Structures are given as structure tokens and as C-alpha cells.
Amino acid sequence: MDGGIEQVHRRLAAQFTRDGHEVGFFVMNGDPVPDWPTVGGAGSVPGACLRLRRVLRQGATHLIAAKEQANLCAWLATRGTDCRVIYSRHATLECTGQRLGPRLLGWLYSLYLLGGGRAVAVSEPLAGALSRRLLWRRERLHNCPNAVIGDELQELANQPPPCPVPESYLLAVGRLAPEKGFDVLLEAYVLASRQASLPALVIVGAGPEKDALLALAARLGIASRVWFTGFLRNPYPLFRGARLFVLSSRHEGMPTALIEALALQVPVVASDCETGPRELLQNGRLGVLVPPDDPHALAEGLRRGLEWTPPAGDTSVRRFHGRQAAQAYYRVWNR
């Protein structure tokens, strides 16, 4: 439960609880959610549907599903019930490792919207792309902000760093997976270093690409300049100390780490992938945008980003606070 989507839903659940609602989690992979009532367990999709249906019979009235397997499970389990369901989409319609193509996703979401179902996409471009694939009831698809920011964010950022870091550094945060483009970042770091003296590079995260990225850093001759911290439960002190936050993703839905960097007023450079960064950075007003999957463009972005000063007084990221996100979901349920 430590991925971006999982963290977003935990923050959303916390706000629902503060608003006086009783909240629990149903998981399909068997992993408990720390500090939250959790039911479910590992097994097949049909078995998960039966378990979820038993939970609904105990009085659950509202349900938010996230990720496509969970969306399908929720649709099957709620047939013939009065449960109000929101099916959420967090990733682009075409992304690495996804088994379902955009056309099939359009059919699935059209199916979800039969009856009383509602759907949520986490960015406006993603909502537009999904809407064009729907067969009907496009009015039931909404854009809701992710619950990324909480009142505790600044307090967490003010804590001591959870691990050793260099005195001056660039920061990247995310799962070490192909879609995050950390290989592009390492290549861009080498290119930019040939033109100017750069701070060290700190990469926070864990994932299947760790060994490949370590090997790539060694081949590029920058192993001594790149710090891999692994997963950190509280990475926010590293945001506070960073010269620049870098998002090198090949694709995103709505990148939570970029929202957190903006909230903590860290200068940012981000790849202009299909959804997320351009909307967040207001077409480049709030940070540097570069073409995705392009080491040379990102290298230039790193140099520009180190000279970037975030505009003062911008409050656009406040919509990603848990309070605003919860209100958006209430509005969708009540329509």
C-alpha cells in the first residue's frame, strides 16, 4: 500500500473519517492497509467478488474502486445492490505493461456506467481521452483531484532527513520502473554535466529496475554522483533540501510527487507526457516542461530548472488537499 494510488486513497479515507464517515479498505492482493480496517485477501477475481459482496451486505453504502481489476470486481460485486460506486482511472489509456488497450477500456467504462455507476479520471486530459472512448453516458464521467496534500505535509518536510544526502542535489522520486523514465534521467544528467557543473542526483524509490539503473549509472561513469536511497516512508525532508525536483516519466495520470514538490515550493522540471504535468504546471508557468523520453531535451531542462524561481503566491495546488478532494467525490456521489 505504498504506491502513489494507494497513498492517495489513504489520504482520501482519512478525510472521509474526519468528515464523520466510517471507512475501511477491501484489498484484492492480501496486503493489509496499515492503521485501517482491512478485509479481502489473495485469490481469484471471482473469489474477491464474493468476499466484497459479503462486505456490502454488512451495510457498506459507498465504494471507490481503483485500478482496473478492482473496478471490474466492484462492478460484479455490486450488481443488484444499492451501493453507490465510483470507478476511478489514474493512468493514461496507453501505458507500459497494461494488458487492456484504449478501445477495451472504453467498453469497460461504458459497462461501469450502466445503472447508477459514476467514473472519475484524475486529470482533465485523461477525462477527455476516456470520454471519447465511452459509448454512452459521458455525463457520468468526472474529473476529481487526487488527495495528495495534507495538513501534515510541511511538518513532515521539516523533520531531519531520513538518510544521508549530499549537501546540494537534484531530486527524483518514484517507483523504479520503465514508465518513470529514470534511464532517461541518468542519460540527461550525463549530457547536462558536460555543459555545466551539476549538483548530485538523488533518486528515491524502489522497484524492478533498480539493478538495471545501478548498472546504467556505472556504465555512464556517474555512479559516485547518483544516490539511490530506496523506498522512504517520509521523503519530504529531501524535497525541502533539493535544488530542483525532476519528473522524467514517459507517461503519468496525475503525478503525486510533482504535486508535492509544487506544494513545498521546490523548482521543478517535468516531462510533458500525455496527461498530468502540463495541467499541473499551467503550460509551463509554474515549472519547466520538456518533451518526454528525450535525454537531450531533459538535459537542457535541468540547466534551465536550476535557474528557475517558482512564482510567488500561487495557490493552484490547494485543490489537491484532502478536504477539496473529498468534497469533489461527495459531489460526484450526490449527482
Automatic annotation (TrEMBL):
One of its GO terms (molecular function) is glycosyltransferase activity. It comes from Pseudomonas flexibilis. CDD domains: GT4_GT28_WabH-like. Residues 3-148 form the Glycosyltransferase subfamily 4-like N-terminal domain. Keywords: Glycosyltransferase, Transferase. This is Glycosyltransferase involved in cell wall bisynthesis. The keyword Iron does not apply. It comes from the Bacteria. Signal peptide: none annotated. Pfam families: Glyco_trans_1_4, Glyco_transf_4.
